Amino acid sequence: MFKKILIANWKEHPKSGREAVKIFGAAMRAKTPKNIKTVVCPPFVYLEKCASTAVRRPNAKGRAALGAQDVFWKDEGPYTGEVGPAMLRALGVAYVIIGHSERRRWLGETDAMVNKKIGAALGAGLRVVLCVGEPAGVRKKGIAAAQKFVKDQLAKDLRGISSDKKIARRVVVAYEPIWAIGTGDSADPADVRAMAVFIKKQLSFLFKSPAASRRSFVLYGGSVNGKNIADYLQYEAVDGALVGGASLKADEWKKMVEAIKTLR
Ligand code: 13P
Q1: CATH architecture for residues 4-261
Q2: Which ligand 1 atom minimizes the distance to the CA of 183?
Q3: Among 132, 169, 170, 235, which is least packed by CB within 10 angstroms?
Q4: Where are the domains of the chain?
């Protein structure tokens, strides 16, 4: 039986805690079978509220796991504004998105920073959702250029990360071509499949294990919604989706879960 992961990245939404609880509650109510894992990543300020909503509904059918959208590489210290991996763990957070292109663009996050964050998050027992993906200018040069870009990102972001099976298994890679994010210009599903296979090969190499390509999870992100999600997840190599805009709408979330359910 296949296993797929659906991750909601709320980004800097919504503006109020009340709205956050409403959206989170809707995600919890969407009935998900055992082979679909759902993860919701709200802004830091709503994590605690969402965690207590989850605790109050321990038997909810579509029990979503909690994720954060970023993490710092130190557990505590004089780092104004930062949140460490241990703090997230203490809240019941299981996943953390690292290296999203929006952070790389607006906050100047470098591969070296992403690398440190991944090491710290894995060390604290978190699962990492590492985002990689090429800008439009690179994609215009062709698939080979896009693959080279992603290969370089993976090599830098995962440099020195333990290839221990148990640790490597906690790294999920989300392929998010920058030109497809929030634009409605979603990537061609066959291209995404090819990129997922390529990424899995890179992971085998980086984690020094042929089995890593079978074990690893590679997701697609970029203008995914209820209508197109099955086009991507129909492929065995595409293990799930990282969804922005559509993840904030209860009906779209439900549609995405339903679309995954119909896949065989
Ligand atoms: P959209 O689904 O809004 O295109 O965002 C994708 C994304 O960046 C998820 O991390």
Answers
A1: Alpha-Beta Barrel (3.20)
A2: 4
A3: 169
A4: 4-261
Residues 40, 247: Cα–Cα separation, whole Å: 9
53 CB-near residues (< 8 Å, 6+ apart): 21, 24, 25, 28
Q: Which residue has the tokens 């099976």?
A: 165
| CB-based pocket (< 6 A), ligand 1 | 9, 100, 176, 181-182, 221-224, 242-246
* Rounded CA separation 3/25 (Å): 23
Each residue's pLDDT expressed in tens, for the chain with a length of 264 residues? 569 999 999 999 999 999 999 999 988 888 888 889 999 999 999 999 999 887 665 555 557 899 999 999 999 999 999 999 999 999 999 999 999 999 999 999 999 999 999 999 999 999 999 999 999 999 999 999 999 999 999 999 999 998 888 888 999 999 999 999 999 999 999 999 999 999 999 999 999 888 877 788 999 999 999 999 999 999 999 999 999 999 999 999 999 999 999 997
Nearest CA among 108, 81, 263 for reference residue 189: 263
- Shortest CA distance to 110 belongs to which of 57, 61, 73? 73
Residue 218, helix vs strand vs coil: strand
* Minimum-distance ligand 1 atom for the alpha carbon of 100: 10
Give the distance (Å) from ligand 1 centre to CA of residue 42. Answer: 13
Pocket test for ligand 1, best of 5, 6, 7, 9 (most atoms within 8 A of CB): 9
Beta bridge partners of 96: 68, 128
